[in-house]
Amino acid sequence: MKSYYALNKQLQLSESTPEKTNWIHLEKPTLEEIEELTSTYHLPLDYLTAVLDNQEISRQEHLNQKSFDHPVLLILQYPTAGTSPSGYKQFETLPFSIIFTQNIIVTSSNTSLSIQEMFASKLKLPQNIDLYEAVTLKLSWYFASLFNYYIRTISAETDLLEAELQNATENKQLYQLMDMQKSLIYFDAALEQNLAIYRLMSTSPILFHTKEEHALLFDIMIETKQAISSADIQAQVLNQLGNMFSAIISNNMNIVMKVLTVITIVLTIPTIIGGVYGMNVKLPFANEDNMFWWLTFATFALSILTIWWLRFHKFF
């Protein structure tokens, strides 16, 4: 799907028409849309097809040129929430391309993203900033903030998972833990790659010419480094939690087996007594009128005594 936007010098973003647009966004682009744009604006085909590959890494092309002799490509990665094959929440990273030419900005993604929401991020831009710098800074800040938000989400889910450990006897928690670890692996790789692109941006001759712009890019780099650090800490927490999980589940299963064993032992007592007095032989007090009630009382007392003895010796 193709969307047209107009971004004025006051950095006000609005929907536009093909004739007045200066920002085109492709969402899940078709080959026909890609070929049309590459032909109209003389763009390399791989600039737009890159986002169709979910494994595409962060990269840049022609960022070091001194003027816009060639279209500039920036590919950054952003996080998105999904469902793992095991059926639990899992986060992954996808590529987002930003293309600059002398006349137009083209962005592209393979998932549904709101350009207006992304551009409305809280990063305050200086006056008279070029549109290229404004778009780059706004989107980069949005992606860095989104990484930090999802890492905090994983941290909160880890706390809930840890609370379930006490009574865990199934593998469900292990699957959830595995999906969170995979998410953090994706995050760490994507954040490191994005950070490398931001560093290249800071030395680019065609981007960020003022101290204010460089300061904002530095803030984005700090936000990205914070996400990398948080992801690393959370990965260590999950790793330690994973080491504990198997032992805790095994211990909880042992407790269950102990309880079942105690129940079996206690239920065996009346079976033995009933079996003995049910034999067709002479037994003491077998002909007493109240023998049934005496046997019932003795069985109950012996069962209680057995439970107390097992409990006293910490069998359960």
Automatic annotation (TrEMBL):
Subcellular location: Membrane
Segments crossing the lipid bilayer: 259-279, 291-310
Coiled coil: 151-178
Membrane topology: Multi-pass membrane protein
Keywords in alphabetical order: Coiled coil, Membrane, Transmembrane, Transmembrane helix
GO molecular-function terms, A-Z: metal ion transmembrane transporter activity
Cellular component annotations (GO), alphabetically ordered: membrane
Database matches in Pfam families: CorA (PF01544)
Family matches, as CDD domains: EcCorA_ZntB-like_u2
Highest taxon in the source lineage: Bacteria
PANTHER family from the UniProt entry: MAGNESIUM AND COBALT TRANSPORTER (PTHR47891:SF2), TRANSPORTER-RELATED (PTHR47891)
Family membership noted in the UniProt record: Belongs to the CorA metal ion transporter (MIT) (TC 1.A.35) family.
UniProt name for this protein: Magnesium transporter CorA
Organism of provenance: Vagococcus humatus
